[in-house]
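Quick illustration, no need to memorize.
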Amino acid sequence: MDGANHSVVSEFVFLGLSNSWEIQILLFFFSSVFYVSTLMGNLLIVLTVTCSPHLQSPMYFLLTNLSIIDLIFCSSTTPKMIYDLFRTRKAISFGGCITQVFFIHAIGGTEMVLLIAMAFDRYVAICKPLHYLTIMSPRICILLLVVSWIIGFIHSVTQLAFVIDLPFCGPNELDSFFCDLPRFIRLACIETYTLEFMVTANSGFISVFSFLILIMSYIFILVTVQKKTSGGLSKALSTLSAHVTVVVLFFGPLIFFYTWPFPTSHLDKFLAIFDAVVTPFLNPVIYTFRNKEMKVAMRRICMQFLNFNKII
């Protein structure tokens, strides 16, 4: 066969998360609440930073873009999952599946690089405060953002280049609620062991490498601060704790997906839900509730909105 043009499979069917009606209702409310909260929380961060003159700094510029990425990431899988919970046949077209894979890997790759950029921003702010605005200039911030998107796009296109022309002529059931690449590849009509290994190694290597860079950068920051002054260590720990929490929540499930050698379908699904639904919600919560400036600015925005409604 010569690729997707000769495939007889025009759609894929998700097996979903559970066949239990009670569990599906629970998942519906759980996913809906977290998805709406994620949308509202991240949109509030974008609105607050955009409308607050006191938050026009590189750190908040990067945080705003992280919120935008989280909005796109959770919207690439969660609405379809919620919609499918009450459908007997949970199907997605071949093109829709490929599109979902593209966005998952493009946004995931972009977020990895953006988190590294945010770690660099914290390094400059903590270790070189006098040169912060010079190093983290608007031009550099935009450059970091553009590089993040380019790397995410290249990562996603590279992954798809391996699978876009695979022939699919047999079973079309995916034991998941979205089009994850490893299960997608296994449905092809050819021997895919080598291809599975290449794709998994690609995503696994990028995830582990990015995670190690981030952890080492945080350790380097703490060691540098400790050498300069012991009093600044507690402040640095407080500042970095939010970043470390977000990094662990984001990379933990990804590293498990692509490096754990044994099949664990139920745990994979649980972590997939956590990564798609819970993590994008926790990111704004963690960054907001540990940041006094953000909390003050959000209260100000909310008060202005309430006063505006009273006038109307």
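The first helix runs from residue 21 to 51.
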